[in-house]
Design brief:
The complex is a heterodimer.
Chain A: H1 9-23, H2 33-54, H3 56-60, H4 67-94, H5 97-103, H6 110-139, H7 150-211, H8 228-240, H9 244-268, H10 272-282, H11 294-303, H12 307-310, H13 314-329, H14 331-352, H15 362-369, H16 374-383, H17 388-397, H18 407-411, H19 418-448, H20 452-461, H21 464-469, H22 471-474, H23 490-515, H24 519-543
Chain B: E1 7-16, E2 19-29, E3 34-38, H1 45-52, E4 60-65, E5 68-69, H2 74-78, E6 81-84, H3 96-106, H4 111-125, H5 129-134, H6 142-154, E7 160-164, H7 172-187, E8 191-195, H8 199-205, E9 208-213, E10 216-221, H9 223-230, H10 235-243, H11 248-258
Parallel strand pairs in B: 3-8, 3-9, 6-7, 7-8
Antiparallel strand pairs in B: 1-2, 1-4, 4-5, 9-10
Helix pairs in contact in B: 3-4, 3-6
The chains are: A mainly alpha, B alpha/beta.
Chain lengths: ~550, ~260
């Protein structure tokens, strides 16, 4: 019988999901496969190397902090980076609507699918976790008061920590899908992914600052006991035989939390995964709400000034509406764009957060008080991140699962693609740049207690319209016209890097101009230059016609 | 002695909130029969097939494949049928061969046997082995992808075949070949449900036709019997009479007259 030598369904599914994790779910255009495979290999190696480098920071703590603090700092990094990566990948892997059409009618149980996906996610995040901990596992031998077998104990506790993270992710997603339904689940998923990306950025900025104080804090008492990395650090200590009497309660908490979450997420709610997948399938296309309010409100909004004046061209207006619809309704677009933009909104706030008084010199404090200090300048740089928002949004809005639908534009009697680009660009400016500018400026002003950062950021903000035009220079730019797999194109990264360098240069020169008392003429010069450049770029983009081969 | 129908639906119903998608549908399809499942858009055809295949949980009622309840014994039931969904969804990042081997393995077919069977389908559908082996599914034409989906449904030689718009995207030659294949499979004793909007194909291929509208079964019988009972000359006339609006020609003429230049 053939079944005797066939692999078990779970093995087959694990192999499948492992492939999909690295390849993505959609295919590339012919001829791109080989290049993409090489990029993927380099990408994985690069990511591991980067994580290894990043892990050097907690690894170096071995020389200066006691064993529990060292173990807890390693677990903090693991939790914040490997676990958050796991959570972020889980959102895209656990609930894929088309998957129901491919797998749900085959002889596999939803629980088997869940276990296979989880095994893949766990293996992937463990790889990242061990890259992050690699330096720490070596430096642990120099950690005073620690056991020589710390490395072995830490491998076990890291495994448990990742199991806790994976179970927690599955538990949360399962509960949400079961209780909130597909429509709200999509928004919830976007929110979770956005918060995760914010948490990662915030953690990467704030964790090193927190570590400065690690040597002085007793983690085994007080508020620190509420933090999971400390529980797993305590488990490390128990396994190493370091002050067991003091650490065992927290160690027990780590084991109990992992066991309970794994039982709830994987055993108790494992069967709910099938219900969740069915729910995704069930409600597709059966939205029962009488009539969506959003389309009517949107049409009213663009029919009124100032959008009516700004979107006079009917093609631009329709491209604006198309882009907006995808920003509001398309699950995949939402899942990729909001988490990608969120860090750009968080960075200004992190840069504006007051540094600890110990790390600031008296001269710096005096300069800040006079409105010319490093804090004010950093905050201004932070506000300037807003300039990058439309650029980043447009890099994503060029891609979609439904990219084949863009063939429509090529069949219509349009002489140029520029109106389609401008419509999408104006949507990015309207929905991201302008609201972000208002909110970030107000929050930074409140944090700093002055409007100086905004004034310092003005020359950089003057570049906003120019920077938003840059994607139109690279190639024929049509909204939602490229497959999602091409999102990380080199030209996109170059544009982004170029825009950052340009705005930083303008900002630095602005700082120098302020020092010499030429700030007002400098702003005027930058704004005039920006207006001139904007006019030139628009003309240039407007003159470009369709690519001959595809027209 | 009674013989168990290959497909048996008893009072199958599905509601989405307040909306009744399928309303107490009862049908039996014996082995060797090709049943054409017809209905206007939104009639509940796809929902019915999704319930039969275990992709949707019925609100009420049962669906059995060769006597096996799809809800109570899903794995056993799923081994008995092959399904071609109308979406034609596949993992686009896999090559055709990777995809088919993966599907075969899920049915417990070892790689050597699967490869032999895949080669048979390859020959039948005139697919190139090089394409199947090296090209990712996302780069296939719609017709080629449909052939892969059909192969994936038939690879384990199921007793029951459920098809939702299977000809969508197939060229004329492939469509003719596929219809011949269906007739052969039915002669071999397989029960086939063929859901489609293409009435003339259903009329030519199916032994029985069931028309549903608003989730309810309107008629069920052999095409010739149904035409005779309802005084219709063609299946199209019968379909329109049962589910559509009368006077299409007059409406079209009125529409064309009023169409702005």
């Amino acid at each position: 019988m053939t079944a005797a030598t066939a692999p078990r369904p779970e093995q087959v599914l694990r192999a499948l999901f492992w492939k999909l994790l690295f390849r993505g779910r959609a295919a590339l255009a012919p001829g791109q496969q080989e290049g993409q495979r090489r990029r993927r290999q380099v990408g994985v190696a690069g990511t591991l190397a980067l994580y290894g480098l990043f892990g050097a920071l907690p690894g170096a703590m071995a020389f200066v902090v006691p064993p529990l603090s060292f173990a807890a700092s390693l677990h903090s990094f693991t939790l914040l980076f490997a676990s958050l990566t796991l959570a972020s990948a889980a959102g895209a892997m656990l609930f894929v609507r088309e998957e129901a059409e491919i797998l749900l009618h085959r002889p596999v149980l939803p629980e088997q699918m869940l276990r296979a996906k989880l095994a893949v996610l766990l293996s992937h995040s463990l790889l990242l976790a061990f890259a992050l901990n690699a330096v720490g596992l070596v430096t642990a031998f120099w950690n005073q008061g620690n056991a020589p077998w710390f490395a072995a104990a830490h491998v076990v506790t890291t495994l448990l920590l990742m199991l806790l993270s994976a179970s927690l992710v599955v538990l949360v997603y399962n509960v949400c899908l079961r209780w909130f339904g597909r429509e709200r689940f999509d928004n919830l998923l976007t929110l979770v992914q956005t918060l995760l990306s914010v948490a990662m950025i915030a953690a990467s900025q704030l964790l090193p600052r927190a570590m400065e104080r690690m040597a002085d804090v007793d983690l085994a008492s007080g508020w620190a006991q509420a933090l999971p990395p400390v529980w797993f650090g305590a488990l490390d200590m128990v396994l190493c035989g370091v002050d067991v009497a003091r650490h065992w309660p927290l160690a027990l908490l780590a084991v109990a939390a992992t066991a309970l979450t794994a039982w709830l997420g994987l055993v108790r709610l494992g069967s709910a995964y099938g219900v969740g997948l069915m729910a995704l399938n069930e409600t597709a296309g059966t939205d029962e709400r009488p009539e969506r309010q959003a389309p009517r409100r949107l049409r009213r909004l663009i029919a009124a000034p100032p959008l009516r004046w700004w979107l006079r061209d009917p093609v631009e207006r329709q491209a604006f509406l198309l882009t907006t619809a995808y920003l509001l309704r398309d699950r995949v677009t939402k899942l990729k764009i909001y988490p990608a933009l969120a860090p750009l909104l968080v960075m200004p706030l992190i840069l504006a957060a007051p540094a600890s008084r110990n790390s600031r010199t008296a001269a710096a404090e005096a300069a800040d008080a006079a409105g010319r200090g490093p804090s004010q300048f950093l905050s201004a740089m932070g506000i300037a991140y807003v300039v990058l928002l439309p650029l980043q949004a447009l890099l994503f809005l060029r891609h979609s699962e439904h990219h084949r639908a863009a063939a429509l534009f090529r069949c219509t009697p349009l002489a140029h693609w520029a109106p389609l680009f401008h419509g999408a660009r104006k949507a990015a400016l309207t929905w991201f740049a302008l609201p972000a500018l208002g909110s970030v400026t107000s929050i930074v002003a409140a944090m700093q207690g002055s409007a100086t950062p905004f004034l310092l950021a003005l020359p950089m903000l003057g570049l906003l319209p120019v920077v938003s035009l840059l994607p139109g220079l690279t190639n024929e730019w049509l909204p939602l016209s490229q497959p999602n797999e091409d999102i990380r194109s080199q030209s996109g990264c170059l544009l982004f890097a170029g825009a950052i360098m340009l705005s930083m240069a303008i900002g630095v020169v602005g700082g120098v101009a302020q020092g010499f008392g030429w700030f007002a003429p400098y702003i005027v010069a930058v704004l005039l230059g920006s207006a001139l450049l904007h006019w030139r770029l628009r003309r240039r983009i407007g003159a470009r016609s369709w690519r001959a081969a595809e027209r | 002695m009674t013989t168990e129908a290959s497909i048996s639906l008893q009072n199958l119903s599905k509601t989405f909130g307040a909306q009744l998608a399928v309303d107490q549908l009862s049908l039996d399809v014996p082995a060797g029969t090709i049943l054409g499942l017809l209905g206007p858009n939104g009639a509940g055809k796809t929902t019915t097939l999704k319930m039969v295949t275990g992709m949707l949980q019925p609100t009420v009622g049962t669906a059995r494949i060769c006597g096996v309840d799809i809800v109570k014994q899903p794995l056993e039931a799923k081994r008995l049928f092959g399904f071609v969904p109308d979406s034609g969804a596949v993992y686009e990042a896999l090559t055709g061969l990777e995809y088919l081997l993966m599907v075969a393995a899920l049915y417990g077919i070892d790689e050597a046997t699967a490869t032999t069977r895949i080669r048979q389908f390859l020959d039948y559908f005139e697919l190139l082995e090089g394409t199947l082996r090296h090209k990712l599914l996302g780069a296939y034409s719609k017709g080629m992808r449909r052939k892969v989906v059909i192969t994936a449904a038939l690879l384990h030689n199921p007793k029951v075949v459920l098809l939702d718009e299977p000809l969508d995207g197939l060229d004329a030659n492939a469509a003719v070949g596929f219809k011949a294949l269906l007739e052969t499979l039915a002669r071999e004793g397989k029960a086939i449900v063929y859901s489609s909007h293409v009435l003339d194909v259903v009329e030519r291929v199916c032994h029985r036709v069931a028309i549903i509208d608003k989730g309810r079964l309107m008629v069920d019988g052999a095409p010739a019997d149904l035409l005779r009972q309802h005084g219709a000359a063609t299946l199209e006339q019968l379909f329109t009479k049962l589910t559509g609006v009368a006077g299409h020609e007059a409406r079209a003429a009125e529409f064309a007259k009023n169409l702005l230049p």
